[in-house]
């Protein structure tokens, strides 16, 4: 395969690529709003038609209990070649507040190198570069089929919680059998600093209720002589972290895959400006977290306990001198590589039980399930192969990032039992989920180029 | 003065006393509900008429910005005799839920020894025994005027916060000049165990706001790397008490008048059943409070810090994985003899400032004013005199209690610069502020008897 031929193929089809993408972006496939259900289906049908046109021998609409997904398969010539699932989604976020958009979110506009419209970066643009890349790879190599079997799975419910996605994976597990999963739904560090995500934090959520007296008590008559559930809650919640910002649940860190020195070095080479980051964090006044870790390490690679909500007693205007009968808190844990949401849930339940003072009754309700963290070691064969493909496209070293939260990625890794590889060209500045979402067209073309190289790199790596 | 003559006088007028009281109780003088403003005034006018009938040479209606008070004065024969203000109130609590009353709250009913109706115990009945007692004392002694000048002040806003009471006291300070204030608006331990209140806790209230980021943050993207105001609030509130249940504000206990051994002994002699008390405390499961003190000492004679309300972040159904931008707490302090609400306010403000972590901004709003604690040492001349009067009436030793909360009593002590003495015959079982309020008629008559003796005891003690 000649690099120049790949680039030449992509450049020659650039206008058509953008025109097709604009057509798709014009379909308001907002999965979170039932009023747009027909549009989500129209988006799936449009994509299915496009993928057929692009030469995929198999294209199917896969129904779910909610919105449909699109599945397209392009088998390798060699029946023993590895298979790779490529994941993306064709649904988009809502667009409110509409008045803050400079252009119609569903009338995509090109401004210089930018394509502006809902879904341009998240995730239609990033699904789209794969077909261009695949065809560029085929054209440059002169072959009729890719060096790995490609199984493109484009979900229709990612922006509304992927509620039926695990079921979909289970239902089609045999068809989706693969050696690796390529996720194209994340971001790079910046246009100048290409990077790959290697992990996403998982999540488990709980609600704690502490009960004291059967009714609110007059604090003059009873205050100071019976347990106050709000005080007990303050003590409980304050005990969740130690003075070093570490979570105190017994065993919480036992299974955590530690950051390697190499990964910490590569993180540290990212041009990170903490002041700018704090500004983006709602003008936070200071960084704060687990001792011994940088901000990026804290949000990407370290688990946390966070109080998301807390309430009890009198919360209206003015004073009310009571001992409240109940206190409530919502707590969530972000989990990293190696941690099991169920183990953390059990540890939390036991910890609350143990730390509830005499005279107060505790109830812990865990949100069922939880999200498992996902993680791709930087020295794994598929990550190395994808990194080579990215480096060939970008002509520079590719660094590594992680993400602090996650969607359905862990389901893919768990159900398909395959390593994840993150290949994406979105930017943090793409304003995904916000108004005036955009994508950098040159980066989409770089993504297509990386995708062109990806299959031959993976074919070698996964053998 | 002959005891028998006092008792005989009271017994002879018992039916008339109850009939008059029933007439007054029928007036729904609910000060907290503007719809009853006319009834509160009618209650004042009825009382003024009654006091004139009973022989008070001076009876006046004193206007306030809110509901009127009644003032009646009966000068001693000796112009150098001490003067005593007697405090009570003629307004009553609301009566909801009406369907839980067995009888109409404003159609007083006698059942055996009980008189049932709103205000029977709190406070019309207890105001009423004073006139009967005063006339019994005069009749028994054969004198036309009492041995001390009696200045009866019956407020009309006690049940709605006594909002204009301090102004009223300031406006009439010269008329109200006195050597002691008798408060008849509390309770005894039980019908078998007569007792006198000797102190009431004061109060100061605050609202704390902790601010972090300017908006709620996604806990996946930012969690674990910026301060969480709810966590900071939990740490702050948990630090308000130490492991022994003591309040940690610097200097908080410095000015507290300690319980004397004698007072602790007398408290301990009260037949207190902690299980029953816990049941009355909303079925609380365990006593809890400052180490080294009994439950009665904790609620009567020890200061406290209580979280009355706390809130922030997501408090609705389901999960929301955020770092909240704000956290709030309402805190109140019950204060005891010697403590100054302003000093505690200042200490709290400084303490919050000092204990707020880097990156979080704190705001403390104190409720203006606060309620000063009030306290009458058990060995003070006026308390000893009143105790003798009570013991003569009840024929048994009178023990001491205190109250955990207070109304306008501290204003009386502060503005009139006179010691307080609590003479009352209500019971905790009288269901004041609740449905089916009642009073024990024999106790009202004992109250009248104690009041008959009180003036000669005080005349001696206050000389």
What do these coordinates show?
The structure is a homodimer of 463-residue chains. Chain A has 463 residues and is an alpha/beta fold. Chain A has two domains: 3-200 and 373-461, Aminopeptidase (3-Layer(aba) Sandwich), CATH 3.40.630; 202-256 and 303-366, Alpha-Beta Plaits (2-Layer Sandwich), CATH 3.30.70.360. The first copy, chain A, has helices at 3-12, 14-25, 37-53, 124-141, 165-171, 219-222, 229-238, 261-268, 274-280, 295-301, 341-355, 381-394, 409-416, 441-461; strands spanning 58-62, 69-74, 83-89, 109-111, 114-116, 149-155, 180-183, 187-188, 195-200, 202-211, 217-218, 304-313, 322-323, 326-335, 361-366, 374-375, 399-403, 420-422, 426-427, 438-440. In chain A, the strands form six sheets. The first copy, chain A, has a six-stranded mixed beta sheet with strand order 1-2-6-3-7-18, sandwiched between helices. The first copy, chain A, has a four-stranded antiparallel beta sheet with strand order 12-14-10-15, with helices on one face. In chain A, α1 packs antiparallel against α14 (441-461), α5 runs parallel beside α13 (409-416) and α12 (381-394) runs antiparallel to α14. Chain A is elongated and about 85 Å long. Chain A starts with a helix and ends with a helix. Chains A and B meet through β11, α6, α7, α10 and β12 of A and β11, α6, α7, α10 and β12 of B.
N/C terminus separation of chain A: 19 Å
Order of strands in the sheet with the most strands of chain A?
A: 1-2-6-3-7-18
Percentage beta strand of chain A: 15-25%
Q: Strand pairing plus helix content of chain A: what structural class?
A: alpha/beta
Which residues of chain A form runs of ≥5 with pLDDT under 50?
A: none
CATH topology of the largest domain in chain A: Aminopeptidase
CATH class of the largest domain in chain A: Alpha Beta
- What is the number of strand segments of chain A? 20
What is the name of the CATH superfamily of the largest domain in chain A?
A: Zn peptidases
What's the quaternary structure here?
homodimer
Q: Could you say how many structural domains of chain A there are in total?
A: 2
What gyration radius of chain A follows from the Cα positions, in whole Å?
25 Å
Number of helices of chain A: 14
> Mind describing the biggest β-sheet of chain A?
6 strands, mixed
Please identify, by name, the CATH architecture of the largest domain in chain A: 3-Layer(aba) Sandwich
Most extensive interface: A-B, 81 and 81 residues
Average pLDDT over all residues of chain A: 95
| Shape category of chain A | elongated
Helical fraction of chain A: 25-40%
Pfam family, one (chains A, B): M20_dimer
Organism (chains A, B): Actinomadura syzygii
Domain Peptidase M20 dimerisation (chains A, B): 199-359
Keywords (chains A, B): Hydrolase, Metal-binding, Protease
